[in-house]
Amino acid sequence: TVNDIPIEELPLPVDFVWGAATAAYQIEGAAYEDGKGRSIWDTFTHLEPSRTNGENGDVTCDHYNRMPEDVELMASYGMDVYRFSIAWSRIIPLGGRNDPLNEKGIAFYNDLIDRLLAHKIEPVVTLFHWDTPQGIYDRYGAFLNTTEFRADFEHYARLCFSRFGDRVKKWITFNEPYIISVFGHHSGVLAPGRSTANGGDSRVEPWRVGHTIILSHTSVVQIYATEFQPSQFGTISIALNSHFYEPWDATSSVHIDAAQRRLEFYVGWFGDPIFLGKDYPASMRLQLGSRLPEFSPAEIELLRQSVPINTFYGMNHYSTKYARALPDPPAEDDCTGNVEEGPTNNKGEEIGPASGMSWLRVAPVGFRKLLNWVWNRYQLPIIVTENGCPCPGESQMTLEQAVDDKFRSRYIGLYLDAISRAIYEDGVPVQGYYVWSLMDNFEWSAGYGPRYGITHVNYNSLVRTPKNSASYLRKTFRERRVARQE
Ligand code: GBH
């Protein structure tokens, strides 16, 4: 069990930053208030509620109306930073570059930013955390039309930089492009719910969507660097998620290669163009051929020029899996590098103790290896922009039980030990840790079942109660952050 892995409470640098992360659709609620437009998540949850456990984000934590109280909570936790996302359709209800703005939505984010700064909490803003305005999805399929999406995203980003950039100094363009591409446009378990079975084409759409994200990201970092950075002095990058993958059979080169290829299909897909300024990984070209879109010479040049603008790597990470090579040829709609992934290896050993989610196991060693993998490949300082877990059985617990979340504190403690080892033993520059999440919230296709918060939310009364992991975080960062003589 998780209690068998000793926590060492290893040190972290004095200037290491910690905070918590959220996303607009998961916490804001007020889905139809104050002029907000619909997003594809409003549509997805209402059209076929069975896809989200019968639940939706209409109200969720009602953060939109309780924001001042939530900022007080953050201040009481001693957080240095707060990562949140802007709901695009709250500030441009239809989403497009010629559509009207919603000043009430803009005022909400201004108020949030001002209150954070008044408490000396640094805002870290994600421009896009999955809630595409329905208006641009209806018009041209959003990510499926690279040229149109890119122009609309540029306009939206400019609006955010010009209205919030005097106070926001850290920007993340997209949250988890892999998930947008594959879960949204391949398996279809997340909005807009496209798959071959549901009006899409899983052989090509994920790759088109990924291509749109890369080019839109690149345009927007260029815009930031040329038009805003000279007067606003902030930084910008993207948040890429991935499990780490261990070979299913560690003695076989076939499975060792499969684990490496799986990471290239997960991280290299976006990381190589954005952080290395070059084409997709060779393993992807080899398997996918022309189904993977091409970058024109001008686009490669733009990618190349944009590399140094991304000054950090945003890593969302939760767990590790085993990768097992599948027999050739790969399925035409394969997105994995022809790999089967699972929690056990060829000896039947489990990758780590289970949490409250079947896919999420406690495997801090894999985390340390992923930090090394990313550093070796991209040579960029890393900020862990999401990490956390639900406790086993947490969805069934009473308030008293849920608040006593030892499992979560242990998970966090072990993952912080992994960061410490990566920094001091491996030389990987890790600069910060944002726990997922500030509070229990709407967990997409799983609805309100899983609870990831360091704050408990009662979804009837909307009362917030800090869990013990919140005080653990405060205490462990107070104690771990020490100056070290090298
Ligand atoms: C993040 O996604 C999201 O950014 C955040 O909004 C979310 O609430 C949080 O994590 C917790 O889930 O087939 O093994 O990949 C993480 C990406 C995608 C991880 C779906 C779990 C399903 C199982 N998630 N994935 S697996």
UniProtKB/TrEMBL annotation:
The keyword Hydrolase applies. Keywords: Glycosidase, Hydrolase. InterPro entries: GH, GH_1_N_CS, Glyco_hydro_1. GO terms for biological process: cellulose catabolic process. Signal peptide: none annotated. The keyword Hydrolase applies. Its EC number is 3.2.1.21. One of its GO terms (molecular function) is cellobiose glucosidase activity. Transmembrane segments: none annotated. SUPFAM superfamilies: (Trans)glycosidases. Residues 329-350 are annotated as: Disordered. Belongs to the glycosyl hydrolase 1 family. Plays an important role in cellulose degradation. Shows hydrolytic activity against several glycosidic compounds. This is beta-glucosidase. It comes from Oidiodendron maius (strain Zn).
